[in-house]
């Protein structure tokens, strides 16, 4: 699943193309949008903002309509030249000038009114965005402490209601960098230790959100059975499914406590 840095990277690519501009055209090729009349409802409307919160991306228009996207496991955002041939599973195409903005195979794509309760609740239900300009650490700790204290800290970090934007990769890498066992119960992780994971994760995610080069930050993720890069060859990286979704966690049992 694309993580928060991937979504912020997409927003950073889309923003200079669309923000402050009236799109030349908007198309919704997928049949499910046939009756929704997005092109007509957005015709002549300038884009007032392109932003992300956690794994959610929003394109806002001056008439208070908002395109909301969540890519889940399959979706992608692309910014391409106008002569780019869109794939058949393209759901949304926005053209301005010589550029196309496309959402491909994204299972959550909707046009909604910014003032609607459903929109407000969607944001309110999320924890603080780890990539916000100023991270609200106290809000993160409050939400963490109202969670189940017997839940593994690695699993709690994936809960977007606790903190928005962290996915399986960054959960593993943050816990490793901070030296915290992802299987330790949340109630046994101090506030200082919980914030150490966030402080290890946030700058790497910020860099990835700017560069789009997430792969270069993988140290333990996907490296099951290989020597631990911190404590040497006598301790191998382990991998096991964690949480209700059985997402694979990578960790070193020797140097993460």
TrEMBL record:
InterPro entries: FPG_cat, FPG_N, H2TH_FPG, Ribosomal_uS13-like_H2TH, Znf_DNA_glyclase/AP_lyase. Its EC number is 4.2.99.18. One of its GO terms (molecular function) is class I DNA-(apurinic or apyrimidinic site) endonuclease activity. Residues 219-257 form the FPG-type domain. The keyword Membrane does not apply. Residues 2-120 form the Formamidopyrimidine-DNA glycosylase catalytic domain. Keywords: DNA damage, DNA repair, DNA-binding, Glycosidase, Hydrolase, Lyase, Metal-binding, Multifunctional enzyme, Zinc, Zinc-finger. Coiled coil: none annotated. SUPFAM superfamilies: Glucocorticoid receptor-like (DNA-binding domain) (SSF57716), N-terminal domain of MutM-like DNA repair proteins (SSF81624), S13-like H2TH domain (SSF46946). GO terms for biological process: base-excision repair. This is DNA-(apurinic or apyrimidinic site) lyase. The keyword DNA damage applies. PANTHER family: ENDONUCLEASE 8 (PTHR42697:SF1). It holds the Pfam family H2TH. Belongs to the FPG family. It comes from the Bacteria.
């Amino acid at each position: 699943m694309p993580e928060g840095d991937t979504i912020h990277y997409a927003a950073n690519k889309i923003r200079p193309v669309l923000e402050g501009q009236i799109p030349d055209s908007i198309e919704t090729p997928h049949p499910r949008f046939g009756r929704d009349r997005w092109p007509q409802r957005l015709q002549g409307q300038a884009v007032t903002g392109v932003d992300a919160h956690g794994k959610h991306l929003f394109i806002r228009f001056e008439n208070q309509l908002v395109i909301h996207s969540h890519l889940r496991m399959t979706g992608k955002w692309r910014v391409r030249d106008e002569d780019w041939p869109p794939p058949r599973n393209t759901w949304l195409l926005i053209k301005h000038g010589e550029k196309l903005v496309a959402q491909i195979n994204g299972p959550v794509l909707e046009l909604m009114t910014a003032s609607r309760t459903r929109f407000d609740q969607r944001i309110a239900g999320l924890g603080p965005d780890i990539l916000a300009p100023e991270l609200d650490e106290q809000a993160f700790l409050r939400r963490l402490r109202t969670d189940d204290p017997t839940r593994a800290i690695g699993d709690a970090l994936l809960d977007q209601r606790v903190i928005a934007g962290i996915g399986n990769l960054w959960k593993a890498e943050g816990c490793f960098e901070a030296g915290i066992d992802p299987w330790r119960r949340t109630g046994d992780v101090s506030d200082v230790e919980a914030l150490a994971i966030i402080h290890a994760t946030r700058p790497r995610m910020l860099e990835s959100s700017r560069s789009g080069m997430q792969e270069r930050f993988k140290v333990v993720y996907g490296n099951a059975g290989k020597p631990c890069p911190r404590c040497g060859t006598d301790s191998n990286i382990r991998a096991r499914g964690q949480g209700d979704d059985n997402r694979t966690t990578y960790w070193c049992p020797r140097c993460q406590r």
